[in-house]
Design goal:
Elements (H helix, E strand, L loop, with lengths): L1 H17 L6 E6 L11 H18 L3 E7 L15 H4 L12 H11 L3 E6 L3 E3 L11 H4 L4 E4 L2 E4 L4 H17 L4 E4 L16 H6 L7 H23 L4 E4 L22 H5 L3 H7 L4 E2 L14 H11 L5 E6 H6 L1 E2 L2 E5 L1 H10 L3 E7 L1 H5 L5 H9 L21 E8 L2 E7 L12 E8 L12 E5 L3 E3 L8 E9 L9 E6 L1
Parallel strand pairs: 1-2, 1-13, 2-3, 3-7, 7-8, 8-9, 10-13
Antiparallel strand pairs: 4-6, 5-6, 11-12, 14-15, 15-18, 16-17, 16-19, 19-20
């Protein structure tokens, strides 16, 4: 029985390896709004983040989505908004000893070959737990630009000045920091609360823009913002990816024929977020619906929702937002002896438009709840992966590397190469992919299991043994959007 189980495990691992994707966004959300960093101090917070990044790197994560603006405040140095209380415990108070968490995170992620996407909450100006606001906070400086709702402050999406302001904040981040992406989550108009209404009737009557339905007007406001936001980011730096992670249900079938067979809160009707319009109009570069439910959920079945998003949201790279804790909490309906990770990953592989996963939340994977992190590093994300292609931004590959040569050094046997010529962001090599093949093996760079490393360095340390084994190493160059160059081969004896 034991041998049978071992064989089954090996077969499952081999199957997943065979189905592995060469290009896949493997992300993790690191949030601050839960207070995990509040009052830690500089040294302890850096130690905590270092540990999380090291573990996530081992898990195969290649994108970190780091929350830097939870309530019109900043986990970075800003002249526009105050320091966040989720960093120092008091809004407006700078960290001591002084440091810039966003700048530090970018450096640490890039050092590990990861992308860093700066995560902002666009409209939320105050969370429920915030009791004191800094004098330079937007809701203090311009109280009429906000409305109160469920003990929150919200920048009114119907006011054009607010759209301009958020875009100014985004431009400031993108211009001053070497971020790879900028990310917004699902907080547009506030989540509805029974007995409360959004206080924007007067604004609608005075500035309806010819729209007779208030709900249509609210969607119109958000649409204007998303389009402006996208254009602002790409005007500043064309290579910076814009991502949005909407709530997991677009519409229920009872509300519209296009809707999913679900019964829950709706992006379109309740949050006034027309995510399909944004996807189909190209106002974002990747979409991460938060499909946090389990397979078999009566109101919002995971299986139903991933199939729906795959069918309707394929115009831009589709990445699934996964709830780590919920995934390991529930049993697989077809195999009650195990949790749902394997079943969900199998669904991912079946969906042609699904190009990755973002983990909610990072610490749950780091803590290895339900053996989730171990499963990633040993099976599902065992081999490195490139980012999804984005030809709508740039599809030109860099030139190939030059002078590939193994050299003995004081550090061992090292494969060196020279970067290709290139100057612009869409031409210059930023990273390199190193593959390894047997001496008589067909060179196939589409096989992700052959990837040894994705590195920023123009060298790779070879695993020398006795010089009797023949191998062929292949090196390619990647540009900022990970378009891949032609391959250069080198025979090596190890």
């Amino acid at each position: 029985m034991k041998n049978k189980l071992i064989l089954m495990a090996i077969a499952a691992m081999m199957a997943m390896t065979m189905n592995a994707q060469k290009r896949e966004m493997r992300g993790a959300w690191i949030q601050c709004v839960n207070g995990q960093f509040q009052n830690l101090g500089t040294k302890k917070m850096q130690e905590t983040l270092t540990y999380q990044l090291n573990e996530l790197q081992k898990d195969g994560v290649n994108v970190i989505i780091f929350q830097v603006r939870p309530e019109c405040d900043a986990l970075y140095e800003s002249k526009l908004e105050p320091w966040s209380r989720f960093l120092t415990g008091q809004q407006g108070k700078a960290p001591s000893p002084y440091w810039d968490p966003l700048k530090w995170m970018i450096e640490e992620c890039h050092k590990r070959g990861m992308e860093l996407h700066a995560w902002i909450n666009p409209y939320r100006a105050k969370t429920k737990g915030t009791k004191m606001l800094s004098p330079n906070h937007i809701s203090v400086r311009k109280p009429m630009n906000c409305f109160a709702y469920d003990d929150l402050f919200i920048l009114n999406p119907g006011i054009a000045e607010n759209r301009d302001y958020i875009c100014e904040v985004a431009k400031d981040i993108v211009t001053r920091y070497d971020v790879d992406g900028i990310h917004m989550d699902d907080y547009f108009y506030p989540y509805p609360v029974k007995g409360e209404s959004i206080p924007d009737d007067e604004l609608f009557y005075d500035h309806s823009n010819g729209l007779k339905n208030q709900n249509d007007w609210r969607r119109y406001n958000v649409n204007l913002f998303v389009e402006q936001f996208y254009k602002t980011v790409h005007a500043a730096k064309p290579w910076v990816k814009v991502g949005i992670s909407p709530f997991g249900i677009y519409r229920n079938k009872r509300s519209a024929e296009i809707g999913s067979n679900t019964n829950g809160l709706q992006n379109y009707d309740d949050l006034y977020a027309d995510i399909l319009l944004w996807v189909n109009n190209g106002w974002l570069d990747y979409c991460v619906p938060q499909i946090y439910w389990e397979i078999g959920n009566k109101a919002a079945d995971y299986d139903t929702l991933i199939r729906w998003w795959n069918q309707y949201a394929g115009a831009r790279p589709l990445v699934i937002g996964e709830d780590v804790e919920r995934t390991v909490k529930y049993a697989d309906p077809k195999n009650p002896n195990t949790h749902q990770l394997a079943a969900k990953m199998a669904l991912h592989r079946q969906m042609p438009n699904v190009q990755g996963t973002v983990l909610w939340y990072a610490k749950a994977a780091v803590d290895n709840v339900g053996n989730y992190g171990t499963s990633l590093r040993q099976t599902y994300w065992r081999h490195p992966a490139l980012q999804p292609a984005m030809p709508f931004i740039d599809d030109k590959a860099p030139n190939k590397v030059r002078k590939v040569k193994p050299i003995w050094t004081s550090d061992g046997y090292v494969l060196f190469w020279t970067a290709p010529k290139g100057e612009g962001w869409n031409d210059k090599a930023e990273k390199y992919v190193v593959y390894r093949f047997g001496a008589k093996e067909k060179i196939d760079t589409s096989d992700p299991s052959k990837i040894c490393a994705i590195t920023t360095h123009p060298f790779y340390k070879l695993p020398y043994v006795d010089g009797k084994q023949k191998w062929v190493y292949v090196v390619t160059a990647l540009d900022r959007l990970q378009n891949e160059s032609k391959a250069v081969k080198k025979k090596v004896k190890l």
